[in-house]
Amino acid sequence: MRSGPVLEVEQLSAGYGEVQILRHVSLRVEAGEMVTLVGSNGAGKSTLLNAICGIVRPTVGRVRLDGTDITGWSSEAIVAQGITQVPEGRRLFPQMTVRENLLMGAYRRRDHRGIERDIAAMYELFPVLKDRQRQRAGSMSGGEQQMCAIGRGLMARPRILILDELSLGLAPIMLDVLVDALQRVHAEGTTVFVVEQDVATAFDLATIGYVLENGRVVLSGPTADLRSDPHVKKAYLGL
Amino acid sequence: MTKRFGGLAAVSEVSFDLQGGEILGLIGPNGSGKTTLVNLVTGALPRTAGEVRFRGGSIHGRLGVSRTFQIVKPFRNLTVIENVMVGALFGSRGGAPSLAEARRRAEEVLDFVSLSHRAQTAADGLNVPERKRMELARALAMRPAVLLLDEVMAGLNPAEIDAAVALIKRIRDRGTTLIVIEHVMRAIRDLSDRIMVLFHGEKLTEGPPVEVLNNPEVVSAYLGRRYAERAGA
User: Fold this and answer.
1) CB-based contact B158 A238, cutoff 8 Å
2) pLDDT digits over A154-208, tens only?
3) CATH fold group of domain B66-144+152-175
4) Minimum CA–CA partner of A166 in chain B
5) A144 touches chain B (CB under 8 A)
6) How far is C-alpha A74 from the geometric centre of its chain's CA atoms?
7) Three-state SS at B19
8) A172 plus A223 within the same structural domain
9) Chain B: nearest CA to A236, how far in angstroms?
10) pTM score over 0.90
């Protein structure tokens, strides 16, 4: 078995037209780790995710997944290679049921028994999804929709699960539930990369963190250290 | 007020009042009925039971109750100032002002929310905090007596939140009464004169911020373990 990072971003620059957003961003996510990237609005978080997922083409730099260079690949090919994103704002199929949304996550798979086993596992992870399996996804609360979106992402059995703005619009107690569930997913072996504006939540979740400002990584390290960094405390934790 | 969707009571026998010049914070878990409550007050949804009185009378007509929406939906092809003019033209008490007057009001509120420099930008070109401020400006252009803010802080960083809190306080100081729905506790705590908590469509409690946020029932229904740990730390 090869060792080394699942996801490696090396000296990545990207932007839109003349506007350069990302400047030489490097980061790594090792197998089995939970890593977070935090930053304010406009720092370049979404552009980075778009560049990793093949929606924006990097001008310079490389993206590797388990050692394979995926820079410039189409999004479909990148998904097939094992990156799944839980997008900002959940983006469920609102007219489909909860179960149908989960099945959509597994659209590339043909192992029907495995799919049914994983659906059962999602219902165990988020019992409310089982209660609501035949309900339209669009009729659920924001927190329940986020659970369904995470479940849909996991149904692809990705090498790495990327979460974009997990916390947006969610009640504090709902975030507790999601944090617990993600920690369980992580403990069971899934590699997770969380891009998050709520820094307190991001640091509760992840062991390694990166701070993005104006398109550059300005700080990185164990979240325990970042939490006590004076700049992080002032700018992101509001302490 | 009560609102049922089929067999589900989204809001169940909730009563509250709003004093002129105050800021009422409205919190509760996702799905607890906050947005439905706002929709009942504004008449966007018909009530199953109950009534709303505005200054002692019926709430029908153009009385000056304005709101923002959780998901900001600008007219994408219009400029920022045109979006704000829509508010002045269609929402004002006492009928629509002239186009020139609507433009003047829009300029004034854009200045008030510090967005004048973006007036001629297409609404599409704004970033998240700017969109929120435009949404606020559009509501303010109606010169509301009561303004209902539905999650205007979501997605802002601590510095942007502090700026938004200061802005909302200035709106109140100009004579507008507010109901603020928010999950950002530092904002709700700093802004609210009173906080009301909804849980499963019912009023769990209401009172001064410090009292409500330390209420064990509110911690277990809404604020959660990590909030309590942080507050205790």
Assistant:
1) yes
2) 999 999 999 999 988 888 999 999 999 999 999 999 999 999 988 989 999 999 9
3) Rossmann fold (3.40.50)
4) B155
5) yes
6) 19
7) coil
8) yes
9) 6
10) no
